[in-house]
Amino acid sequence: MAFDGMTLHHIVNELKTGALGARVSQIYQPNRDEILINLRSAADGNKKLLLSTRANSPRVHFTRYSVENPATPPMLCMLMRKRLGGGKLLDIRQSGLDRIVTFVFECTNELGDKVIINVICEIMGKYSNVILTDENDIIIDALKRVDMTMSSRRLVLPNIKYEKPESQNKLNILLVKTDEVVEKIINLPAEKTLGKAILETVEGISPIICREIEHRVAGDKTLSNKTLNKDDKACLKSELEKLSDTVLTCSGEAFTLYHKGDKKPFETSFIPITQYGSLCESKRAESFCELIDNFYIERDSIDRMRVKSADLSKILQNLIHRTSNKINIQKRELENCVDREPLRIKGDLLQANLYRVERGAESVIVENFYNNNEPMEIKLNPALPPSQNAQKFYKDYNKAKTAEQVLTEQIKKGEDELVYLESLKDSLSRAASEKELSQIRLEFIEQGYIKSGKNARKKPAVLPPLEYMTSDGFKVLVGRNNKQNDTLTMKTARKRDYWFHTKDIPGSHTIVVTDGRQITEKAIIEAARIAAYHSKAKESSNVPVDYTLVKNVSKPNGAKPGMVIFVDNRTVYVDPELPSTK
Fold this sequence. Notes:
- The mean pLDDT is 89.
- The protein is 37% helix and 21% strand.
- A six-stranded antiparallel β-sheet has the order 15-16-18-17-19-22, sandwiched between helices.
- Helix 3 (178-186) crosses helix 6, helix 4 packs across helix 5 and helix 9 (341-352) packs antiparallel against helix 10.
- By secondary structure, the protein is of the alpha+beta class.
- It folds into four domains: 5-142, ibrinogen binding protein from staphylococcus aureus fold (Roll); 178-304, Helicase, Ruva Protein, domain 3; 314-427; 466-574, no CATH class.
- Strand 6 (100-108) and strand 7 (114-122) form a beta hairpin.
- The longest helix is centred in the last third of the chain and has 45 residues, at 386-430.
- It is built from 13 helices and 22 strands.
């Protein structure tokens, strides 16, 4: 992702246009890596400013997405609310073309005096940080404190002077003549490809822009900083001048690049990208804030939920592994129980020939009347009388018979448990918010997989099912988790509504609300696609989906949440596809 200093220059320009003069109405810290500042102004209304220090997606921009917040705000969040609450945003400054932005707020302290508070956002990969300083550049606090055990060069601690990160000694094309930039590229000590030479020389430029300039200068040939001819130098100078003008005037356009095959976004840019030819396509966004917001929000949401559900995922994996091993062991024991008939035969033969068995004998040879009187040797326990030897064979036979019944029941119970655990795993993988995660966590507690915490009495808010609409006007409801699946199918849906579920694949219950109308073939296909999308087979194709009337679906007594049985069903094969959410 090309969130470089030049892109940031465009974003800062947008932030100045939409935020200067606005006042801080609220501050949130949804997690340890992000700060969200709500800004309110008479002209532009409310806007949310996101300061993110995530290692894989550090950035600064307006966001339109809401992020769930913890019940208790972290200490830094409370400090920022105290210091910045009601403050007025006076200025936004970028340090050259570095990825360092300073937000200057005029605030009121406890004595009622006007003071300046700076919020400095450093966007430097895993070293990204948000730092609060006063008007004298003394650090008030930071999102990530850095002490002597972490760095001996630059400390970030309260009550010490703020120092900028070390300069990389690159040239700012907004302040330096283009000839000077070209000269430095050519005179680098080592020979490099032109793109790498530009990256090493120019401040605030990303690899994709460097490669694009190289592509425009070199075309299909390979160029290094040491092999440029007169025409190449002139072309390089021209491209750098165009780039400088674009950045200086903030006249770039927000582009997202997509792989042409899978339509997945993989890069962004503020100039048209031609280096990939027909392998990718680009799409423009209305603004750079919108561009960055859309690019990261889905990936960050997935990462955030993965972290928050890590403990439940680990418990599930252990439960699935343990249950699978237990079933395998029971199946091996069952195989031994099945081969029990010889025990009964030996008991019968020994009982019929007790008179021939000497006390203390280790074995006896008798005629097997079950097999044409063929001679058969039976091993005996010399410590037992002949009659007790016979009874022991009967006892072992009955024990194996009982074990077969018990093991069959236990294996069935274990397999049902495994199906349920897989459904829990599927629900957990699709949880898109902390509220959904809280409901799944409650299900873990109710099933005895984890113990209830301190806030056990406070149950999470019940979320409504997901809602969609088919192209011909049928409402489609989808359960978010197992408990909601039960409620949706057994309580919400009516008998003449239709129920959908992926065949033998964990997934959500999907209901088509008919309202007394006859369901159409189009609605069946579209609902089946929705059901397939909300299942473990989301990334597959030609997914089998069962459907039937809700009146044909029932829940056995004592069944786990989301587990039902159904009859009179039909099956369609569809590719997962999701329509627009209502």
